[in-house]
Amino acid sequence: MDIKELYQGLWSAVNGVCDKCYLKNRPRATSEKERPDTYIVIRLPFPIVSNEIGDEDEYNDFSTMAQIEIYVRDKVSNKNVNELNVSVLSTKVSKVRKLFPISNKTFVAYKPTVRVYDDDGDGFSVAIIQCVLKTK
Length: 136
What we know:
The chain is of the alpha+beta class. About 20% of the residues lie in helices and about 35% in strands. It has helices spanning about 5-15, 85-95; strands at about 20-25, 40-45, 50, 60-75, 100-105, 105-115, 125-135.
């Protein structure tokens, strides 16, 4: 089981859905012209569990939950400073959900579950897609 391959496989699958794609965390600060309107953060925040009976890990049988976080910049208007850009968020979530099951030579990611949050406090609305990730 190679964590780098898990991140790279998920990255390859979702890259291009949003303006940018980050692993684990988004950058704290970026310049105005580098600041994307949409981006994805790929995280593996849960324990990676061996599904094997023995301690040898000879079958490379591991599982975990992966998170694909989709961030969309809120609309700004006089009436509402942080208005959810629901059409863009919905489109991005649909594009990612249509990728499932995500499979390559290393793993398969399946059973996506979507959670939508109002905002992240920095001017973005967030949808989090959690899925089961199982190595091959």
